[in-house]
Specification:
The protein is α/β, with parallel strands linked by helices. The chain is built from 10 helices and 9 strands. It starts with a helix and ends in an 11-residue tail after the last helix.
Length: about 300
């Protein structure tokens, strides 16, 4: 943690390393319908948005990708980020690139609330997006992996009495893939933690760490969960994924951990290809079925 600028840069680029208001849809040359900047909520006068990438002739499965590194959530033109999702788009999945209230303005508990809302919104409007609300997967890398696991481990049924119709909807997802995720934030948010110094999103009351540590919320009804982690990762050590895998197994949840030998925080070359293959295969196994094939109406 001595090179804070380098570490923050690693997190800001995490979505590249891992994979590596209504807008008007546009169709790319590759046959992907892009709907940018869909507003799924507001906070402090600002919009929370996601981009939608829907391949022609795709299935009815939706994958939420958490655009988050160090709990920073960076916007980029969707035409420039579409390549990140090619492994999923090639298999017919619709991808939602979800942005949240970003560090340094917002801390982790606030970020978790945002991404929960994104799931509720997509489920509420599933017909509009051409996806089955019961076949939603979620994925991300590092902080995005943490958020993915939080969605898997801490879903609720929604509040049927809430005035906001989005909040009446469940935020449950059906499958999770997390690249090198922090799973226990308790040691990271201690007052003397170097992580807390270099990552503003971790500067919240340590008493709240249990609530936003997915490792503390594993239960038998959690969705099938895959983690992908390098055994030489010094930023988010492998034990985070190992402990999460063991906890999920103990609860009888379908889970696996792909350990990339010699890899650090982010993969390249053959390591990235192995991760991508496992990432897509997990969603194919747990989300695709005959009912997922496109209908005549779609």
């Amino acid at each position: 943690m001595r090179r804070s600028a380098r570490v923050q840069s690693v997190f800001l680029c995490m979505i590249l390393l891992a994979v590596l208001a209504v807008s008007i849809p546009a169709r790319s040359a590759s046959g992907i319908q892009i709907t940018p900047d869909v507003v799924y909520g507001h906070k402090h006068g600002m919009a929370l948005t996601f981009d939608v990438f829907r391949p022609d002739g795709g299935n009815n499965v939706g994958i939420l990708f958490m655009v988050s590194g160090g709990w920073y959530s960076k916007w980029a033109p969707p035409e420039q980020t579409m390549g990140l999702f090619k492994p999923l788009l090639d298999k017919g999945f619709t991808v939602f690139a979800v942005r949240h209230g970003s560090s340094p303005k917002y801390v982790v508990p606030e970020v978790v609330s945002d991404v929960r809302r994104s799931v509720r919104f997509i489920r509420l409007h599933a017909k509009r997006f051409g996806v089955d609300p019961e076949r939603l997967g979620v994925c991300g890398a590092s902080a995005g992996g943490h958020l993915s696991l939080m969605l898997g481990a801490t879903s609720d049924a929604g509040d049927p009495r809430d005035e906001d119709k989005v909040l009446r909807v469940t935020n449950r997802v059906a499958a999770v893939v997390a690249y090198f995720p922090p799973t226990d934030l308790r040691p990271l948010v201690k007052e003397d933690s170097p992580y807390r110094v270099h990552f503003p999103a971790l500067r919240f009351d340590p008493n709240e760490a249990d609530a936003v540590s997915p490792l503390q919320h594993v239960s038998p009804d959690d969705p099938p969960t895959l983690m992908i982690h390098g055994d030489k990762d010094t930023l988010v050590p492998l034990w985070h994924s190992e402990k999460m895998r063991d906890a999920l197994k103990a609860q009888g949840v379908a889970t696996d951990l792909l350990t990339i030998k010699g890899a650090g925080h982010g993969f390249r070359g053959e390591d990235a290809q192995r991760g991508n293959a496992a990432w897509v295969a997990w969603f194919e196994k747990h989300l695709l079925s005959p009912a997922s094939k496109p209908s005549a109406e779609q």
